[in-house]
Design brief:
Length: 361
């Protein structure tokens, strides 16, 4: 594949991130309007405004800003883009702070939910138009002197679960093996109709493109895969199942991060995402749509983390308010929000440095 130009990276990044951010903020906006909260600004991006207009019906300022690394909706009574409230905001008609606890929670939760909905709809669209490919998790061939051969896997074995996680198809098998280089996994297989348990340790193999070690099993599938165009209902069900499995995989990655086991190459910053999106766009529309679905689900899940300045941080504030019957003092919320923003900005800078280091080798 030819090297990507800077223009291709920028175009891929914008085409990927803009709809994902727009849908996230649209979720906040839509529920806020249902709650009677006035949305003063709907921004895709941060910083100086490049283009914008004001709705005559709602008074909302719709804008596209210069820094395309996210977005925000600023509601009446908000002090800033991070939704910190001004003093006595709860007494202002149409303010976010003046809405009930239930409505405030729903408004905040709506952003991540919108990302999950977008991801599911994009998966379903591909399954309805191009079709969903399913390859059974059956071993067709075992390569000599590999992890599979050492563990005793045989052609014809059907893998049903790995470390207690159900395996639906060969894609699930591959995903679970790739993320476990050098780590023992307990395979449950069906051999001649009987369940057999085997301890398998995938061999670590360094992937130059991703700059990470991945697990290598050393098998080929038995083939016999199918591609089926699904009806809308079946497509949504299959897409929801895939989104759930992907969320579990992301959570496993976050758990590895918490244990200090995540590799640097597994974490991508803006430059890394631009490179991935540009490559997907170069491969065609379907890979790019699938990548957009994956990024949307990632964004929805990450935003639920209980970090101040993220949606999960605000939901944590509301949980405190529900439990103790009083909100966290505004001055404390302000300190936590500013701290969360500082952490996120610092993390972004670190990720950009890692991205550039990977890019230049």
């Amino acid at each position: 594949m030819p090297e990507l130009s800077a223009l291709q990276l920028i175009i891929g990044f914008l085409l990927l991130l803009t709809p994902v951010v727009f849908f996230h903020e649209l979720g906040h906006y839509w529920v806020a309007r249902r709650a009677g909260v006035v949305v003063e600004v709907f921004s895709v991006g941060f910083g100086p405004e490049i283009y914008g207009w004001t709705s005559k019906k709602t008074g909302t300022r719709w804008r596209i800003a210069a820094i395309p690394l996210g977005g925000y909706v600023r509601m009446r009574g908000d002090e800033n883009e991070a939704s910190g409230a001004v003093p006595d905001a709860d007494k202002v008609p149409g303010s976010f702070a003046g809405a009930s606890l239930g409505w405030r929670s729903a408004i905040v939760l709506a952003g991540p939910v919108a990302n999950f909905i977008l991801g599911i709809l994009l998966f379903a669209l591909v399954y309805m138009t191009v079709g969903k490919v399913t390859i059974p998790a059956e071993i067709g061939e075992v390569m000599p002197e590999t992890a599979a051969a050492e563990a005793g896997l045989q052609p014809g074995d059907l893998v049903t679960d790995i470390d207690g996680i159900a395996v639906r198809d060969f894609s699930d098998l591959r995903s679970l093996v790739v993320e476990a280089p050098g780590r023992q996994l307990d395979f449950t297989i069906l051999r001649d109709g009987r369940p057999v348990t085997l301890a398998v340790t995938p061999q670590p193999r360094f992937n130059e493109e991703m700059q990470v070690y991945i697990g290598l099993l050393g098998v080929k599938s038995s083939g016999g895969g199918t591609r089926e165009r699904l009806l809308p209902g079946s497509a949504v069900v299959a897409a929801s199942s895939d989104a759930f499995r992907m969320s579990v995989m992301i959570l496993r990655g976050l758990a590895r991060l918490g244990r200090g086991e995540m590799q640097a190459g597994e974490v991508q910053g803006p430059v890394g995402i631009a490179k991935i999106s540009g490559s997907a766009l170069q491969q065609g529309l379907i890979p790019f749509v699938l990548l957009t679905a994956v990024i949307s689900i990632n964004l929805g899940l990450i935003n639920l983390l209980p970090i101040p300045a993220l949606d999960g941080g605000h939901l944590s504030f509301f949980l405190y308010e529900a439990l103790f019957r009083r909100p966290i003092p505004l001055i404390v919320q302000g300190v936590l929000l500013r701290g969360g923003i500082s952490i996120l900005l610092a993390l972004t800078v670190v990720l950009v440095v890692f991205d550039v280091a990977r890019l230049i080798g």
